[in-house]
Amino acid sequence: AFFHAIGSTLYDVMSGKMDGKEALSFSFDAFANNLIPIDLGGAFNNEGRLSARPIVPTFFVPIYDLIVNEDYAGRMIYREPFTKDLEKKLSPSQLYMNGTNRMLRVITDAAYQATGGDLETGMRYYYEGGKKKRAWGGEVNPAAIEHILETTLSGKGQFYNQLFKIAIRPLEKNKEPLQSYDIPVVSRFVRTAWGDPIKDKFYDNIREAGDIISAYKMAKGVIEQGNVLNEIGRTRYENAKEIIKINNQIRDINEDLASSKVTQAHKDLLMKKKRENMRKINQIEL
Q1: Do 137 and 112 contact (CB within 8 A), yes or no?
Q2: Does 259 or 284 have the greater pLDDT score?
């Protein structure tokens, strides 16, 4: 594992995906993990703070992951409301990731709607006869259920969940590109935080930009929208709009790439343009 990690690191440095400081850090992490039975790499989260995950008993790991909202590779398990106000208003059942198991989403959506929830607004409360009521069926996030199932059932749970998601993928709208860790069997060889830094930051920025725009759109009236802008910051809001604009261009490129009529030469140009747009999004500060 250590020599595989070193090979991957050298490739990433040579291809410009990783700088010398990052390479040294990852190399030390790989070396330490081969000597010590505790995952030192997992001792720090994506923000560089100490994490208790390596010493959490296996049975409680899924619960711990949900509390900190990070899986084994530091990826978010579910979306988080961008403001404290939205945290009180939004239904947890609607804060799933795009790639969350479709069947689980259907079940939680049904429970949410059965107790008065509205899929259009995704709000925790609704009004009936002038009274404010809570949609109790929306308290469960399908992404949380998926994480618990995959973690507790280990290999089999992950395999069947990935297989199901690939089978229904043609039915999905606005789907994110398939990642190696979403593919059955292949995911067994990439169950580490190693990945493409450009893509990782790109998806983080897209999600954060979407949350910023949603926070503003859900504000009612000029005063509330002004309060949201003050909390978010006008510059961050404008940057979020620019990110969404560029991402829409990337979606158009993805549609062109999916066309059976596109030539290889045109495909190469489209991929180059897509990569450039991804870099543009990564350069925008939020």
Answers
A1: yes
A2: 284
Residue listed under structure tokens 């940057």: 239
Rounded-to-integer distance, Cα 115 and Cα 113, Å: 5
CA distance 76 to 78: 6
The DSSP string of 165-189 is HHHTGGG-SSPPPPPGGGSTTGGGG
- pLDDT for 277 equals 92
Integer Cα distance of 203 and 236 in angstroms: 17
Rounded distance between C-alpha atoms, residue 55 and residue 75, angstroms: 19
Give phi and psi for 59, each to the nearest 5: -60, -30
Residues contacting residue 240 through CB under 8 Å, at least 6 positions apart: 208, 209, 210, 212, 213, 286
Q: What is the pTM of this model?
A: 0.53
Contact 142, 101 (CB under 8 A): yes
Which one-letter DSSP state was computed for residue 131? E
- Is residue 77 within 8 A of residue 69, CB to CB? The reply is yes
d(CA 25, CA 41): 10
For 177, the token pair is 């590109």
Helix (H) or strand (E) holding 132: strand 131-134
Reduced to 3 states, what is the DSSP secondary structure of residue 198?
helix
Collapsing DSSP to helix, strand or coil, 128 comes out as strand
CA distance 8 to 66: 30
Structure tokens at 281: 């999004």
Over residues 194-222, the pLDDT tens digits come to 445 667 778 778 888 888 887 787 776 77
